[in-house]
Amino acid sequence: MMSMLTGKTVLVTGGGRGVGRAIALAAAEAGANVAVNDLGVSLQGDSTGDSPAHEVVKEIEAMGGKAIALTDSVGNWDAAHSMIETTVKTFGSIDAVINNAGNLRDVIFHKMTEDDFDAVINVHLKGTFNMSRAAAPFFKEQAGGAFLHMTSTSGLIGNFGQANYCAAKLGIVGMSKAIALDMQRFGVRSNAVAPFAWTRMVSSIPNETPEQKKRVEGLMKLVPERLAPFAVAMVSDQAKHVTGQVFGVRNNEIYLFSQSRPIRTAHSGEGWTPETVIDRVLPMFENDFYPLHKSGDVFTWDPV
């Protein structure tokens, strides 16, 4: 991995802590110039007035790498364009954008406010759009580039109290696929990955009941650094043939997720009525209905 990104410039959003920090350091170790974006906010997205991006830059420089800190919000269109432009002016190019910035406003749906919803959508979904859209013209001009977007099993499968987060993370999957389709002719690729890692975001999970304690114990085994090699590989030239895919990384396990396709079909030559839908279609399909699983109901085994 030491020279896989030599001569490349990689921008990592949310790069000051957790998964983002691990990716930023790994990209630098692999030879990339790294733009580390981190606004410096609380878990809920409120400003703390201090960005950890500068500390990550110091770590990269201490290992002999080159890096800059970008402390603007990905949720702001103008700021996103400014950060991409600053990166290009500093290093001469932009070759990969890793959209990792995020926040949480976990609230049960019937109590979720508009602000709870908008705040999460703005950082995850809108932020991913802003940064990707700002980089797209540069990727098009140079006939190449890589996007890697963070999704989540909360969106792919489901979770309690996260309607805002689930919507954003599943929306990112759709956006990633659309980018892959639109930009393929320019040699640009776009993929999504669901990281499993014990970070500041998942550390907010309740830890009170025996079931919750068991879940948290399992999550604490998931270290952010395990995702970094995958991220470096995916934005390297060696993976330039891979686009439009959805992956997962859980410690030493790497997954390729399925994408929505029809699994059952019902046909009626004379068309349907509400009554025949009830009488014929639903009984035909019931054995294949998906249960209301949460992410933890699907990934039940211990991480390895």
TrEMBL record:
Family per record: Belongs to the short-chain dehydrogenases/reductases (SDR) family.
Pfam family, one: adh_short
PANTHER family: BLL2957 PROTEIN (PTHR45024:SF3), DEHYDROGENASES, SHORT CHAIN (PTHR45024)
Endpoints of the signal sequence: none
Gene3D superfamilies for this protein: NAD(P)-binding Rossmann-like Domain
Xref: InterPro entries: KR_dom, NAD(P)-bd_dom_sf, Peroxisomal_Beta-Oxidation, Sc_DH/Rdtase_CS, SDR_fam
Transmembrane segments: none
Protein name: SDR family NAD(P)-dependent oxidoreductase
Species annotation: Zhongshania marina
Origin superkingdom: Bacteria
Ketoreductase domain ranges (all copies): 8-201
